[in-house]
Amino acid sequence: MFRRTFWFTTGVAAGVWATTKVNRKLNQLTPESLAAQAADRAVLAGRRIKVFALDVRDGMADREAALKDALGLSAAPAPDRKQLPAQRGQQGRAQLMQNYLYNHPKAGNEDH
Asked: Is the CB of residue 94 less than 8 Å from the CB of residue 86?
């Protein structure tokens, strides 16, 4: 009698456990759940890429400083040497393109 009760209870427990596992797995495979998992993984991948990029940037700065020290370029440039002009911003590029198109009619799109 106790044997039957033991095995019956064991079977019921195994059935409940298996049913719970299957239902959890089915809930994980719904489209909404898969989309949420994909979004979470994309966010994690973005964070890892950002950390990697910051590490690379730090390494580049360290290496650049080491190379400048090795080549003796860390001191300020001599005053008699000419410096390159500062890089133009986005506004400067747009102005140059507009001047180029205005002064060179063949460069533009002509309808006549």
From this structure: no
